[in-house]
Every structure is written in structure tokens, then in C-alpha cells.
């Protein structure tokens, strides 16, 4: 009954999306916001209902539903039953349309800045996006399909995904991906109604900021999840699925900066429209690459060429239509106010160029294996040696730009900036000299990364100097915090890649191993059991000088389906993490892998700071817009 | 903005969609006859990829028995998929040597610890020079080499479970 209810709600929502699109096209009445608003709201409520129905089915482990039987198990802890609702292809697509419909409803409800005609056009675009995904769900991946007869037990969930991180990582990324759909729809609406202007940018900005915050959080959390759950000790693998989330983030970061130019100065109009289309396209490209199985990845969990074809068709339709519209309308988009090369706009243009080139590099690197395979039949993998070597220097250039860019004024800046920039240059130079003297063998990228990161921490605060802190807009605070986060993350990345110490050994109880400053003793090995797994657990006592820390890494075997995973044990100290993994038993003992990773936590702390900066800026923007809206009403 | 320039994004999208659609319709075929088949392995000497392990030179490959030479890297994703199949081949008595491409000793060690270690000898090819000499451009790739050090068969891409019978047959032929 619940499954049928969910399915019916989904069909109704799809019908409403169709109505909304027809309304925007002027079929069946004059396009009006008053007409579109209730359609968007009810549609969102119906998708929420369908999503809630799926969650109930998973919590109850209703095995007469195919999706539940294939992905769940009655012995699973409830949190993973709950998260299992979207830990699969159908459920995650349902989450996708739910967020899409919710975004449309929020847009319909709160957007009052832009002209009514444009809002209706944007809502129509949003409905058109929704329709494609409803069709995808209802015709090709129905989450509510029944299974008759119902099996006695479910087929479990990939144990790698049985982790609290999973409960929140994909939804966070989806909020980011789909939030960008609103920027896309607004851009399409603006180009259709020929109103590419500052009010549009102000309407688009919170959506871009919001999506970007979620993408940042999602990528940061995903990186940490891969770090502790996969037990490989790395935090970024340039895996296609990671790249699939990085590409929209890069585009959104560029858009975030260019939309500010449009909002504040009315500049970069065509470029910003283009980026808004590209950012959401990258979300779709990412989804396509992951779902179609066209790329080999350790992450791909829902590979199906037929589904890939469906997403590809949607991608071609939506992005193709938007880019055709862009080509047709670009000439009519007026150029904004002119600016000097040395100006805030100039710096943001360079920022956008660098981000776009990095995006291009990641895109090419991700796709190169299939292109090479098609052209010469060779199967190959493009890994960190390519990405780090090509994207790394550009990222460092961006970091250097961060020292100067925020200090520049809009339009033109002829002030001498040396006194503000010089301390940063000296800091970076000092760090470089110190590392050359004390760590001669350090890689060039990590050496520069460390220098730029350390210099960026004080430099990011410079824009606050000489201002009244209480009267500084929240958006400026947000920028400072986010840029500070970039510096902090950079230090973490450089330190991790340059100073990590690793020990791989076969040990027996009583053996002592040293890694970095730590002395680690294998105190014992014991079997342990959890609700749906059994494991071998090592008891490690680690100390450096005084005190002792206990680490208990496990090699787990899950019962359904039968899978082995390794649960790393991590001790976090103020200056880094000690990371321990236990491997297979051999004749002469147990395989143990130990890492000492100085300041590795700064990577994720930086990521959180970047997201926090975005949040502060978002709150500031919304607050201001509200006040401005109230003043306009009075 | 110039007229032609405005259509560039659309053209790029169409190229991408067209290409990807064609790939979806025509899944890859990895069976390619190599031009090096029938020729001796080019002479090389490589240091060990992991300290303490046996190094690899071309002389080690001509042992009187057919061997499998596998080119891999710790940063290569298809190699992870291939690893269990290599382990299976090893259990069937196949002698396997490896060449790690542009890799670090600790990364190779970690890769082997995680994915299993089917190799007798592993050479480190830091500059891909041996890989190039073997006429291989990608990772992973595998070569069947007979007892006199002659390349008998080249397999491009990961050896997947469905390829095992082909590889075993080639090894048998090389005896």
C-alpha cells in the first residue's frame, strides 16, 4: 500500500511538472507567477511524500518491494536501513527529483527580485528539468516496483557503505548538484526573456552559494570518508567518481565569483550565463559518468548502460537547448561596465580562467581513458601523476592570486599595494628557504604548497585590516574565512604529501614498530563480533615519549553479502594523525600498516572553513536582501 | 562576441554526446594483435619496485618456462580490478612478473598489501622507458613470454575473469 502511494504521488508530481511547463509556454492561460506558484509547491509536497514512503519501506524492510529486497537486510542497524533508501540507484534518483522539486518550490515561494515574466520562464525551465527525471524514474528506474513472491531475506547493502558518513555524504552532494539546477533555470529564464542584469545575479547568488556550500561539505566529507573507510591512507585518489563531484564544484566556484561581478558591477554577463549552464551540466555529466559505467571506478555502485543512455539523452536535451539558447542570445546580452586589468574584476577574471582551465584538465583527464580506448583500443588509467602535475601548479597560481585579488578595488586600482602584499611574499620566501635547508628532498609542489598555504593564512585576513569590524559586511567576513580555509587546507595537503611516514611490517604480538615519532606495540590480536560482521581486531599501544594511546584496527568480514573490509584505527593528535590498518595473517605474523601523517587534519579543517565562509556569506546576503526587500515595500 | 565563438560550447557538447553515445553503443574490444608478438623482449634491467624484493631484467624472463609479464601501477584503477584475477592465475601455477610504472616503493607495497601479491619479481620503471620499449602505452597490460624470452601474446587492459581462458591457452601454446 505504501509503495503504491509513493508511486501515485510521483505520477501526480510529474503531471504537475508538465502543467507548470505548459503554463510557462503560455498554453492554457497567460503565464503568471500566481499560477505557477501553487503547482511548484504541491509538486514538491508530492515528491516529499514519495520519498518519505520509500524511507518507511526501508525502515520496515518491506521485502515485497524489489529495491528493498535487493539493497537491505532485516539484520541491518536502523541508521543504515534509513540511509539505504538512497544508497542505491533508484533511491538516489528519487532523492534527486525531490531536491529538484523542493528547489523549484523555494524559488517560486521566495523569489521576488526578478521580473514576473522571467520567474515564470525559470520555473518552466525547472519543471522541464523535473519532467525528464520523473520520466527516468517512472519509466526506467521505478523505486516502488513490487517483487512477487517476496524473498525471505534481503540481499544486504554493500558493507563499505555501512558507515554513518554514507547517511549524509550523498544527500549533501545532491543538494549541491541539484541546487545548481536553479542557477541553470534562472540563466535560461533570463536569456529567454532577455533580462541578464544585476537583479538576476542577486537572485542567482544565494542558490550558487548554497549549492557550493553543500558541494564543499560533500567533497570534504567524502574525502574523509574515503580516507578512513577504504583504509588506503590517502585522502584524494583522482578517481572518476571523485572527479565527478569536483567538476561541478570547480564550475560553481568560478560561478560564485563571476556572479558577484554581475551583481556588483553588471559585468561578465555572457560569461556568467555560460558558467551557470556549465555548472549544472557538470552535475549531470558527473551523474552520467558514474551511472553509465562508461568509466572504470572503485566507486561505481549502480552501473547500467541503459540508464546511462537515459541520462545522456536528458543531458543532450537540456544542456543542448541551453547552449543553443546561449548561442542565439549571446549577441543581445549587453556588455557590462568596463574595467582595468588591475581591478577586482580583473582578478576575478583571472580566477575564473584558472578555475576553468583546471576544470578542463580534470574533465580531459577523466575522459581520456575512454577516448584513448576508442581511438587505439588501449585501456589505461589516468592517475595522480597527471592530475597533480598539471592541475597542481594552476591551483598554486590561484592561491597566489588570493593574496592580491581581494585587496583590489572594483573597476580600477592604482594604489600601491606593495605594503600589503610584501609581508605575504616574505613569509612564503622564508618558508621556502627553511624547507630548502631542513627538508632538501621535498617535492616542488608540496614545497610551494606549504609556502603559499602558510603565507595565505595571514594574507587572507588583510582585507579586514583598517575596517570597522562591526560594520564589515558578513559577505566580506565569509570571503575572508573561506580564503583562510584554502590556506589551511593547502598546508594540510602539502604536509601530508611531504612529511607522511609509513611502516609496512609483519608483526607478532609483543613486536614494536616505529613510525615517525611514534613507537607502536602490537599488544594482542583478538576476534570480535558486531551485529552483522565478525572481525579480527589488533590491539595497538602507541606512544611518543610519554603516555600511551590505544588503537584497535579491524579486518572485518560481513556476512551478507560476504565481504571483507578493513576498518582503520586513527588516533588524532594536535599535530597529525596516526593511522593503523591490519591486513592478512601470514605464517610469520600479521600484516600491519602504520602511517604518521603530520597535520593531515588541516585538509578537512580547511574544507570546513571554506564551507563555513560560504555559510557566513550566504546568511549575510540573505539578511541584506531581506532588509532591502522590506525597505522597498515601505 | 564573435558569432562562431558563441557556438563553440554547443559544438563541444555535441561532440561529447556523440562520442559517448557511440561508446555506449560499441563496448570496447580489447583483443588486439601486437606487432611485438614473435619478437624477443627488448633488453632491460630494472631495480626492484619494493626494497628487499627481487629486481627484474630481461634475462629473468627467459627461464625455459612461459611466464606472464604484467605492467601495472598503484595509481591505476583498472589494476585493482585485475588484481584478484592475477591471484587466481598464480594459484593455477602461472609464473607472473610485474613492472610498476612511475610509482613509489611505499605505494607499490601498499597496493600489494591491499590487493594481493602475485608477482615473483617486480621491476620499477620510473620513466616508462621499458614500458615504451615493450610497445605498451597504457596500464595495465600483460605479455605472455615463452621460455626463450620471445613475446607470444599481448593483452591490453586488465585481464578480467572472461579473459583467463585466453591467457591460459596462450601460455599453453608458448610451452
Output mean pLDDT of chain B.
84
How many strands, which pairing sense, and closed or not: the largest β-sheet of chain B?
A: 5 strands, mixed
Structural class of chain A, please? alpha+beta
Query: Structural class from helices and strands of chain B?
Result: alpha/beta
Helix proportion of chain A: 55-70%
* CATH homologous superfamily annotation of chain B: Glutaredoxin
**Total helical elements of chain A:** 17
Radius of gyration of chain B: 19 Å
Number of discrete domains of chain B = 1
Number of strands of chain B: 7
Low-confidence runs of at least 5 consecutive residues of chain B:
none
Number of helices in the DSSP assignment of chain B? 6
The run of helices and strands of chain B is HHEEEHEHEHEEH
Number of strands of chain A: 10
Of all chain pairs, the largest interface belongs to: A-B, 51 and 42 residues
CATH class of chain B: Alpha Beta
Determine the fraction of residues in helical runs of chain B and give it as a percent range: 25-40%
* Overall outline of chain B: globular
Amino acid at each position: 500500500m505504501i509503495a503504491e502511494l509513493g508511486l501515485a504521488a510521483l505520477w501526480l508530481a510529474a503531471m504537475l511538472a508538465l502543467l507548470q511547463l505548459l503554463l510557462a509556454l503560455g498554453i492554457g492561460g497567460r503565464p503568471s507567477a500566481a499560477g505557477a506558484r501553487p503547482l511548484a509547491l504541491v509538486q514538491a509536497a508530492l515528491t516529499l511524500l514519495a520519498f518519505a514512503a520509500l524511507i518507511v519501506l526501508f525502515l520496515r524492510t518491506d521485502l515485497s518491494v524489489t529495491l528493498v529486497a535487493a539493497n537491505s537486510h532485516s539484520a541491518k542497524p536502523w541508521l543504515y536501513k534509513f540511509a539505504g533508501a538512497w544508497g542505491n540507484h533508484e533511491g538516489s534518483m528519487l532523492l534527486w527529483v525531490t531536491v529538484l522539486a523542493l528547489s523549484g518550490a523555494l524559488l517560486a515561494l521566495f523569489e521576488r527580485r526578478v521580473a514576473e515574466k522571467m520567474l515564470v520562464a525559470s520555473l518552466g525551465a525547472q519543471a522541464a528539468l523535473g519532467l525528464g527525471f520523473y520520466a527516468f524514474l517512472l519509466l526506467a528506474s521505478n523505486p516502488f516496483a513490487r517483487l512477487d513472491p517476496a524473498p525471505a531475506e534481503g540481499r544486504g547493502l554493500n558493507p563499505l557503505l555501512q558507515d554513518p558518513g554514507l547517511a549524509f555524504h550523498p544527500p549533501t552532494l545532491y543538494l549541491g548538484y541539484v541546487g545548481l539546477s536553479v542557477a541553470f533555470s534562472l540563466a535560461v529564464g533570463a536569456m529567454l526573456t532577455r533580462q541578464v542584469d544585476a537583479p538576476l545575479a542577486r537572485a542567482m547568488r544565494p542558490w550558487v552559494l548554497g549549492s557550493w556550500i553543500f558541494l564543499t561539505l560533500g567533497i570534504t566529507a567524502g574525502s574523509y570518508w574515503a580516507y578512513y573507510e577504504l583504509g588506503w591512507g590517502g585522502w584524494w585518489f583522482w578517481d572518476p567518481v571523485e572527479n565527478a563531484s569536483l567538476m561541478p564544484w570547480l564550475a560553481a566556484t568560478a560561478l560564485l565569483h563571476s556572479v558577484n561581478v554581475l551583481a556588483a558591477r553588471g559585468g561578465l554577463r555572457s560569461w556568467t550565463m555560460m558558467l551557470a549552464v556549465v555548472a549544472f551540466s557538470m552535475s549531470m555529466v558527473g551523474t552520467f559518468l558514474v551511472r553509465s559505467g562508461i568509466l572504470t571506478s572503485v566507486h561505481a555502485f549502480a552501473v547500467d548502460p541503459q540508464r546511462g543512455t537515459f541520462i545522456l539523452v536528458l543531458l543532450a536535451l537540456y544542456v543542448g537547448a541551453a547552449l543553443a539558447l546561449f548561442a542565439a542570445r549571446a549577441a543581445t546580452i549587453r556588455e557590462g561596465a568596463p574595467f582595468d586589468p588591475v581591478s577586482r574584476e580583473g582578478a576575478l577574471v583571472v580566477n575564473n580562467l584558472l578555475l576553468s582551465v583546471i576544470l578542463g584538465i580534470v574533465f580531459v583527464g577523466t575522459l581520456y581513458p575512454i577516448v584513448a580506448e576508442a581511438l587505439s583500443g588501449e585501456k589505461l588509467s589516468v592517475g595522480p601523476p597527471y592530475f597533480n602535475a598539471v592541475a597542481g601548479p594552476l591551483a598554486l597560481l590561484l592561491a597566489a592570486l588570493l593574496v592580491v585579488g581581494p585587496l583590489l578595488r572594483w573597476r580600477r586600482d592604482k594604489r600601491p599595494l606593495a605594503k600589503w602584499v610584501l609581508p605575504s611574499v616574505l613569509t612564503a620566501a622564508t618558508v621556502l628557504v627553511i624547507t630548502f635547508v631542513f627538508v632538501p628532498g621535498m617535492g616542488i609542489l608540496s614545497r610551494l604548497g606549504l609556502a603559499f598555504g602558510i603565507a595565505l593564512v595571514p594574507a587572507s585576513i588583510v582585507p579586514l585590516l583598517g575596517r570597522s569590524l562591526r560594520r564589515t559586511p558578513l559577505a566580506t567576513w565569509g570571503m575572508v574565512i573561506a580564503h583562510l580555509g584554502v590556506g589551511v587546507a593547502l598546508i594540510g595537503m602539502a604536509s601530508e604529501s611531504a612529511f607522511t611516514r609509513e611502516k609496512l611490517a609483519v608483526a607478532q604480538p609483543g613486536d614494536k614498530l616505529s613510525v615517525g615519532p611514534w613507537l607502536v606495540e602490537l599488544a594482542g590480536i583478538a576476534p570480535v563480533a558486531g551485529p552483522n560482521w565478525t572481525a579480527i581486531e589488533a590491539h595497538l599501544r602507541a606512544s611518543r615519549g610519554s603516555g600511551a594511546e590505544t588503537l584497535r584496527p579491524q579486518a572485518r568480514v560481513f556476512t551478507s553479502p560476504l565481504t571483507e573490509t578493513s576498518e582503520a584505527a586513527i588516533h588524532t593528535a594536535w599535530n597529525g594523525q596516526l593511522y593503523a590498518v591490519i591486513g592478512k595473517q601470514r605464517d610469520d605474523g600479521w600484516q600491519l600498516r602504520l602511517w604518521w601523517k603530520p597535520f593531515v587534519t588541516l585538509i578537512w579543517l580547511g574544507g570546513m572553513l571554506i564551507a563555513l565562509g560560504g555559510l557566513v556569506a550566504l546568511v549575510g546576503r540573505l539578511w541584506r536582501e531581506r532588509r532591502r526587500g522590506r525597505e522597498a515595500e515601505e | 562576441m564573435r558569432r562562431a565563438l558563441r557556438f563553440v560550447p554547443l559544438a563541444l557538447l555535441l561532440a561529447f554526446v556523440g562520442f559517448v553515445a557511440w561508446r555506449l553503443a560499441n563496448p570496447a574490444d580489447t583483443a588486439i594483435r601486437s606487432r611485438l608478438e614473435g619478437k624477443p623482449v627488448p633488453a632491460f634491467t630494472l631495480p626492484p619496485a619494493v626494497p628487499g624484493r627481487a629486481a627484474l631484467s630481461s634475462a629473468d624472463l627467459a627461464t625455459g618456462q612461459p611466464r606472464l609479464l604484467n605492467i601495472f601501477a598503484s595509481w591505476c584503477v583498472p589494476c585493482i580490478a585485475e588484481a584478484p584475477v592475477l591471484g587466481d592465475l598464480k594459484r593455477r601455477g602461472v609464473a607472473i612478473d610485474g613492472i610498476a610504472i612511475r610509482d613509489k616503493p611505499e605505494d607499490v607495497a601498499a597496493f600489494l598489501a591491499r590487493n594481493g601479491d602475485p608477482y615473483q619479481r617486480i621491476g620499477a620503471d620510473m620513466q616508462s622507458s621499458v614500458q615504451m620499449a615493450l610497445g605498451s602505452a597504457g596500464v595495465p597490460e600483460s605479455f605472455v613470454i615463452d621460455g626463450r624470452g620471445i613475446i607470444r601474446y599481448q593483452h591490453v587492459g586488465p585481464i578480467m575473469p572472461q579473459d583467463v581462458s585466453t591467457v591460459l591457452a596462450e601460455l599453453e601454446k608458448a610451452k
